[in-house]
From TrEMBL:
The keyword Ribonucleoprotein does not apply. Its main location: cytoplasm. It comes from Aspergillus brasiliensis (strain CBS 101740 / IMI 381727 / IBT 21946). The keyword NAD does not apply. This is Folylpolyglutamate synthase. The lineage of its organism: Eukaryota, Fungi, Dikarya, Ascomycota, Pezizomycotina.
Amino acid sequence: MARTYENALNLLETRRRRGRPLTDPPTETGSFPANVTTTVRGIPSLHGMSEWLQTLGHSDADVARLNIVHVTGTKGKGSTCALTRSILLAHGSRTGFPKKIGLYTSPHLQCIRERIQINNEPVTGSLFTKYFFEVWDKLMDPNIQNTDTEQQPPRYLQFLALLAFHTFIRENVDAAIIEVHHGGEFDATNVIQNPIVTGITSLGLDHVAQLGPTIESIAWHKSGIFKSGAPALSVPQGASPTEVLHARAAEKNTSLTIVPLNPNLPPDSRVQEIPVQRLNCSLAVELARAFLNAKAPDHVLEPDDISTAVRNISLIGRFEIIEDPDGQSQWFLDGTHNTLSLKQQRNGFPKLPGGLRCKSQYRILIFSHFSKDRDSLALLECLAVSLAESDALPDHVIFTTYIEREDKSEKIDKDILPNSLPNLSLLSLYAEKWETLDPRSATSILTKETIEEAIDAARIISAQQDTNGTQVLITGSLRLVGGALKMLRP
């Protein structure tokens, strides 16, 4: 097989799991409240990671030399990682350290290389291909794999995490910001034994089939990334999860610091306009400060470092606004995909200048969410309640799928399985649900099979309105937002 980028992506797709096993691993022992669930369904993603890294020639010491900032949470962990990276880059530009910073994040919006970045840019296609086949050849060779274990070779997310570690080690980064996939204790990224600092963003109920049905269980799993000797930081949480976090920090022989909202963030930035991003940025500042305290104690994180980072950062697909050239439509895009995040819609776009509370403009909602791990109808209801509380319910609703274009074509690196594309019958359920949530909208609901058709329909509706322009909110999934961005900003 030719060593091409396309073939690398095709091979990577073969590592996707077609279904989650229903058996549980042995229960983890330790100190935890009785209402904490400490098992996960199936074989933990962490299983095998250390051995695979050793097969690649990477020891725990090699991973430790990456100088890792490890971040988990239910909401905002991707933004927090990006902000931490931006702050350290700004400081490094001024002082000379750190010069080279790796970022591993998920999921991606448009291109899988977004998951593995160096210095604010996805790795190139050639670099991705080179390191992909270095990992593939060593871990997937039937002559050498599974020599001392009966486990299967790495699955999709495990392989991507291994590829990220391999890339960052080969590229000699000065720091690596690593985002947990989900959970923490059993996550593939928790192969990290010696992080510089760990961080937890806002917690909520998500991935409950794997992490348990209570906020205490979620907190237990997330705090599994705490390590002895590495400071643990968290944004303010509720009383019960905070108690779990403190207990876990003591169990892991580290200290937990609760990071309050930073009142000194740059006043003229998008971060200040969005409350949840202020919280994420406050945590990112302290993660960067803890990193410098450990790796460059003579360095001081200056306000200018923070200002430069926050003003220059672009969080694509998160509270993003795109204006049509003709000024007719204003598109609000947010890849929010859990209830905790959807509740923040009322604190995001509605507070921006000309936001969703502008009653002189016609409002359209484009929504899509399909997941085995989440209750999609509950997410839709959460969004409706949030918009209603902001007096920003849409005048028209369009439900769609993750299929991008009418010819059903998909980019080769699109993060989606062909056999998991939702059918239109699921969209009908959304429409029926919305009618119960907002009875006045019964005659203004559309279902469209593709994102392209949904956007075209929104434009047609907009052109028919005798109002001061149209606002279109696109939300519910990063896959939806990623596809929409290709149409709105090709």
